[in-house]
Design goal:
The protein is α/β, with parallel strands linked by helices. The protein is built from nine helices and nine strands. The chain has a domain of 238 residues: Rossmann fold (3-Layer(aba) Sandwich). The strands form two sheets. Strands 2-3-1-4-5-6 form a six-stranded mixed beta sheet, sandwiched between helices. The protein has a three-stranded antiparallel beta sheet with strand order 7-8-9, with no helix packed on it. The chain is globular, with a radius of gyration of 37 Å. The C terminus is likely disordered. It is found in: Cytoplasm. Its main location: cytoplasm.
Length: 409
């Protein structure tokens, strides 16, 4: 008889104690797995007992070991359950604690929102205020590159000036790049055109509040619409005459009374009637008069959400009021077709920043702040009106539970 001991019962060097069912080591382990492999082969040589053996990839909080999910354990087809009663099929790092691997898809929320809003479309309501002859209709047509003004919608050009301020609105559906927008233009013919202009802003203020009232009544209904029609005025372009001197008392009075009800953006109309130096002096004078009168135009400083907004809006506030020129006629300039106004000494190009500030106004109004105009209208101006109405005696009141019970009886 030979004294050779079979490999199965040959004593092994001492190794640190480990939990049962130890699986393959972490990929960062320098040693092969201990014990028999899943394929039935002999165990490889163990490391010297003086070198600690890395067991799995768990920290001290785990009482069990890995499932056989790595290396040779794949051939068995089954994962050995964790000592705590759970099976692991994913890989874990050796730094302690598990790590989620792979793409989750949270960033697709933006795409989901985009698809949903593109289906419903957008509403944008803009009001233009100023006396006749300042080019309000022409500027709007130039802004949206469409015939959107009331005069372009079938109104007679020889229309007489109304005796009192009238409110006229016309809606258009504009689509660009798959984005649909319902644009409503609200004009105020007769404003500032009378000999006596006392309280000529009252019909405008009444119209603005009526739109808030319509939205509020829809909002407090028990069975309200899924999407409430939004006719609230999101922006009011106030046209200042290019006198080169100072604001009229009517300008100051109008903006002072309505600046807390609507987003007012002052613009200097027909800026090509002034030289560049005259224009800059007039802009500075207007800003100073607005500040002295306590008039806050959009974007207001208190609505800046962070330092980035403050930095961007400070630049806009320093450039306002925008000195603009509007035109819906094209001319040939240096081999290019441009929108402009032809004079005896050349063509004033509407979209040329060296000629006027129309491009800055369009970028500000449409490309960067259109959504913010809507949010400020809803979160600030409408909420102010809503709180006032709900607190008035005899006004609308929130529907209580008792009202709901009575309606159900």
């Amino acid at each position: 008889m030979s004294d050779v001991v079979p490999p199965e019962v040959r004593p092994k060097p001492a190794v640190p104690a480990k939990p049962p069912h130890v699986g393959a080591p972490s990929p960062s382990s320098p040693f092969p797995p201990q014990g028999p492999t899943a394929s039935g082969g002999a165990a490889p040589a163990a490391p010297p007992s003086g070198i600690p053996v890395l067991i799995g990839g768990h920290g001290p909080s785990h009482s069990g070991s890995h499932a056989l999910g790595h290396g040779a354990g794949h051939s068995g087809g089954h994962a050995v359950p964790h000592a705590g009663g759970h099976g692991h099929s994913g890989s874990h790092g050796s730094s302690g604690g598990s790590t989620l691997l792979g793409y989750i898809g949270i960033d697709t929320i933006i795409e989901q929102m985009r698809k949903k809003t593109m289906k419903t479309g957008f509403d944008f309501n803009i009001m233009v205020v100023g006396h006749s002859g300042l080019g309000k209709s022409t500027l709007l047509n130039t802004l949206f590159k469409s015939q959107v003004s009331r005069r372009s919608a079938g109104w007679a050009r020889d229309e007489k000036i109304p005796k009192t301020v009238e409110i006229k609105s016309v809606s258009h559906f504009i689509e660009e790049g798959g984005v649909k927008m319902k644009l409503t233009v609200v004009d105020t013919p007769g404003f500032g055109d009378q000999i006596n202009n006392d309280n000529c802003w009252e019909p405008i203020a009444k119209y603005i509040n009526e739109q808030y009232e319509k939205f509020l009544k829809e909002e407090v209904n028990i069975a309200r619409k899924k999407r409430i029609p939004d006719t609230r005025v999101h922006c009011c372009l106030y046209f200042i005459s290019p006198t080169g001197h100072s604001l009229r008392q009517l300008d100051i009075e109008f903006m002072k009374r309505l600046s807390h009800s609507v987003n007012i953006i002052p613009v200097i109309a027909k800026a090509d009637t002034m030289t560049i130096d005259e224009r800059q002096e007039f802009k500075q004078r207007v800003r100073k008069e607005l500040e002295m009168s306590g008039i806050e135009f959009y974007p207001q400083k208190e609505f800046d959400e962070d330092m980035e907004d403050k930095s961007d809006n400070d630049k806009i506030r320093e450039a306002m009021p925008f000195a603009v020129v509007g035109s819906d006629k094209e001319y040939q300039v240096n081999g290019k077709r441009v929108l402009g106004r032809k004079t005896a000494w050349g063509v004033v190009e509407v979209e040329n920043p060296n000629h006027c500030e129309f491009a800055q106004l369009r970028d500000f109004l449409i490309r960067s702040h259109l959504q913010d105009l809507k949010e400020v209208t809803h979160n600030i101006h409408y909420e102010t009106y809503r709180a006032k109405r709900l607190n008035e005696n005899g006004g609308l009141h929130p529907i209580s539970s008792s009202d709901t019970q009575e309606s159900n009886l």
